[in-house]
Specification:
The complex is a heterodimer of chains A (about 190) and B (about 240). Helices cover about 80% and strands about 0% of the residues of chain A. Chain A is mainly α and about 190 residues long. Chain A starts with 6 loop residues before the first helix and ends with a helix. Chain B has about 240 residues and is mainly alpha-helical. Helices cover about 75% and strands about 0% of the residues of chain B. Classes of the chains: A mainly alpha (about 190), B mainly alpha (about 240).
Chain lengths: ~190, ~240
């Protein structure tokens, strides 16, 4: 990030006992981590919880951060792991009931008020189909799609965040779009 | 649906072109490839639709979500709002008010103006009677004031005379009847007779009053006798 103080410098300050330093990290990355969590989980409440847990985990493991990777990559990895953990727990609780509940909740807050009832219903169906299609992708494909479409990161940023080669990011995105296309074709 | 096996091996360029992340040379080269490759053309169209669907879902979902960072950042960077003036607050209130409330306020304002105008007009046309209660305000000169006082005094005297015609005139030190013993006795007798007659009309005299009356008569007769003696002597002389 083209800021005067880099994330790594702020983390160093936090490690030396600056109480407000970690707050700056949270302020910088909270929105992007939330968007990533939302794309991964599909529900606002889950995304908020995952965002909080991500920063809590980062704060607890601050001393383990060696500066070998970027802070952004480090936070993304923690967030993705938090989302995977939450989804596993949710699947264990109730696999079938979860989808129905999520679909209902997602559709309720996703519906724009200005649209006509027919358009709203159509939009709900489409949104639900896309959400289900994205959620059904394997995690390594899903996180790339979410980082590209939700966070609007460049291939380079995604590669840095996930510590992957640039070509791997592109090929994963290609595969993800191909699978989404096939899954959405079933709804069309 | 198209056959997945039909690929030309330029998937990464296709993705780069789709997201606009090819440099200018790469983009021109892939554009030329698209003119010849139906598979890449079809995939590009299909992926475009998938992207549109995902972006629509993202916009619909995140459009109603308030991001914590946005809230905190805006609250930190936002300059403290100046307290609006009373007029500004009133204007804002009227802007937000419904039409019926605006009409009611306008009607009340017109009514207030009408009543205020009427009150002012009445004050300007104030009746002189209320001011005439204070004599000095209507009397232009001391002569007029004196004349008015004399007139009032005369009226008051007439009123007293008319209301109590039989009442005895108050005695004064200069009264000539006081110096004349005959007149004084006559007056006293008249007063006693009047008081007696008035008391008689009301109630009988008590014992004390009768004794007092007897003393008075005795006193008067003694004085009267001496006066008569002196008069007798003068005549004889």
């Amino acid at each position: 990030m083209g800021t005067a103080t880099s994330d790594e410098q702020i983390v160093e300050r936090a490690l030396t006992g600056d109480a407000e330093a970690f707050g700056e990290i949270v302020q910088r990355w909270e929105r992007r981590i939330f968007v990533l969590s939302f794309g991964m989980l599909g529900r606002e409440e889950d995304a908020r919880d995952a965002t909080q847990e991500t920063f809590l985990a980062a704060f607890r493991n601050l001393r383990a951060f060696r500066g070998e990777a970027k802070v952004s990559s480090w936070l993304h990895r923690i967030a993705v792991n938090q989302c995977i953990t939450r989804q596993r727990r949710a699947k264990i609780r109730s696999e079938s009931a979860l989808d129905t509940e999520q679909e209902k909740n997602a559709a309720s807050f996703a519906a724009p008020i200005r649209h006509s009832p027919a358009r709203v219903a159509e939009g709900r169906e489409t949104s639900s189909a896309v959400r289900l299609a994205v959620n059904s992708l394997p995690v390594e494909l899903r996180q790339v799609v979410v980082m590209k479409e939700f966070e609007e990161l460049t291939f380079k940023e995604i590669a840095d965040a996930l510590d992957l080669p640039l070509s791997t990011v592109k090929s994963r995105l290609y595969t993800a779009l191909k699978q989404l296309q096939m899954r959405l074709a079933k709804f069309g | 649906m198209r056959n997945d096996d039909l690929t030309c091996g330029r998937e990464n360029d296709l993705i780069g072109f789709l997201y606009g992340e090819l440099n200018e040379v790469e983009a021109i080269a892939f554009q030329r490839h698209l003119n010849d490759c139906a598979t890449c053309n079809a995939e590009l169209a299909d992926f475009g639709e998938v992207r549109d669907s995902v972006v629509a879902w993202r916009n619909e979902s995140l459009g109603s979500v308030a991001f914590p960072a946005q809230v905190t950042a805006s609250s930190r960077t936002e300059a403290p709002r100046a307290t609006p003036s009373a007029m500004a607050a009133l204007r804002e209130f009227f802007n937000l008010s419904p039409l019926w409330m605006k009409g009611a306020v306008a009607f009340a304002a017109v009514l207030f103006c009408v009543f205020a105008g009427l009150a002012l007009a009445r004050l300007r046309e104030a009746p002189p009677a209320s001011v005439a209660v204070t004599p000095g305000a209507t009397m232009g000169s001391p002569e007029e004031l004196k004349a008015l006082v004399d007139q009032r005094v005369q009226e008051e005297l007439n009123r007293i005379k008319n209301s109590e015609p039989r009442a005895p005139a108050p005695l004064t030190a200069n009264d000539s009847s006081q110096r004349n013993p005959v007149k004084r006795i006559a007056n006293r007798n008249t007063q006693v007779a009047l008081s007696a007659s008035s008391q008689k009309a009301r109630r009988p005299l008590s014992k004390t009053e009768r004794e007092q009356l007897a003393n008075d008569l005795r006193l008067v007769s003694a004085k009267n006798d001496s006066d008569l003696d002196l008069l007798d002597d003068r005549i004889n002389q």
